Amino acid sequence: YIGLVAFSTMSSTALVPMICYKHPNGQRSNLKYPNVFCGSDEHTAMVIAGSLMLVLGVCGFWAFAAWLAYMCPKFSASGRYDLVQSAWSMD
User: Fold this and answer.
1) pTM (two decimals)
2) Which pLDDT band holds residue 4 (cuts at 50, 70, 90)?
3) What is the Cα–Cα distance from 91 to 89, expressed in whole angstroms?
4) For 26, which DSSP code?
């Protein structure tokens, strides 16, 4: 349960800087932070932080979960039930 909450929270937080909307005057702002104009230095820093969170946090968590799902049968076959139990409690 905790892993699911952390994954969805990181996903939504990491994508915030990537969502911009267009003003009638042609400028673009971040949807959650309308005072941050897309393409500005502040927005660029937000995009870099969001991209790092997306790659390391979200994709890293997904890769770990996929590896764990792949390894669970091997853990079970070798009698490492403690690792299988830990894997099941991750979701």
Assistant:
1) 0.73
2) confident
3) 6
4) S
